[in-house]
Design goal:
Blueprint: E1 2-10, E2 15-23, E3 35-39, H1 48-52, H2 55-62, E4 65-69, H3 86-101, E5 111-116, H4 118-129, E6 136-140, H5 161-168, H6 177-184, E7 190-194, H7 202-214, E8 220-222, H8 230-244
Helix pairs in contact: 2-8, 3-4, 4-6
């Protein structure tokens, strides 16, 4: 398993960006390899999944390449104030770059995206925006409609209304996950969502799944015991990888 830290120039973000990669070059049961693009949460970095979970073990057992970009605190959307398009970066540019660098499958059925909290929100939005790229998407404890928390003390988010304005602009509903899902419709990839039974985000995740099903978009959902913690995400990551590559 090659454990790689690299940087490259992103034409979409117009700067050099870091990337962590796990590539089972010597262990892959098949080539081209399936790939997972794995997004971190708020206040996190591209290192988080490797530091706090056993994703390397799960990926190696399946011959799965894993790529973790730096999403900063940008919620993986196109920034209203700067125009930096994190959604296009993770949904389009990053898969294209990694396919040039490594022997990855270009098939939708072999390409996955997942994330936790802010990254869960980003993974779902990328999956609905680029359904031709991703065959499956998983979200753990997704932090949905984040602009709703940015002016509420104790909301578990960046609590500055001006930050919400800088990210989402005057029409944040364009970044609503259900809106993007309905626009995607029947092209939506397979979905796997989970949120801990003790997590404050459980209610909005249940509401999301209900809205998706009402829109005719099926989604697996589970609420096992757990909170907004790495212990929960570590367990769920293993389950999700087993779902991606049964």
């Amino acid at each position: 398993m090659a454990n790689i830290t690299l940087s490259f120039r992103s034409e979409v973000l117009e700067r050099t960006v870091p990337l962590r990669a796990l590539v089972p070059l010597e262990d892959a049961p098949r080539t081209p390899m399936p790939a997972l693009y794995l997004l971190h949460g708020l206040y996190g970095s591209e290192q988080d999944w490797f530091q706090y979970t056993r994703v390397m073990l799960w990926a190696r057992a399946k011959g799965l390449a894993v790529f973790c970009p730096a999403g900063e605190n940008a919620f993986y959307v196109r920034q209203a104030d700067t125009g930096e398009d994190y959604l296009r970066y993770v949904g389009q540019e990053l898969p294209a770059f990694t396919r040039k660098m490594f022997p990855l499958s270009c098939r939708r059925e072999d390409t996955f995206i997942a994330g936790l909290s802010m990254g869960g929100y980003g993974a779902l939005n990328a999956a609905f925006t680029y359904p031709d790229t991703f065959g499956k998407a998983a979200a753990f404890s997704a932090a949905l409609r984040p602009w709703k928390r940015m002016d509420k003390p104790g909301g578990g988010c960046v609590q500055r209304p001006e930050y919400a304005q800088a990210l989402f602009g005057g029409q944040p509903e364009q970044w609503d996950t259900v809106t993007l899902a309905r626009r995607c419709g029947a092209q939506a990839p397979e979905l796997w969502l989970s949120c801990g039974a003790q997590d404050d985000l459980l209610g909005e995740n249940i509401a999301l799944v209900d809205s998706l099903r009402q829109a005719g978009i099926p989604a697996y959902f589970d609420q096992p015991p757990g909170d907004h913690t790495w212990d929960f995400w570590d367990r769920e990551m293993q389950r999700a990888i087993d779902w991606m590559l049964p």
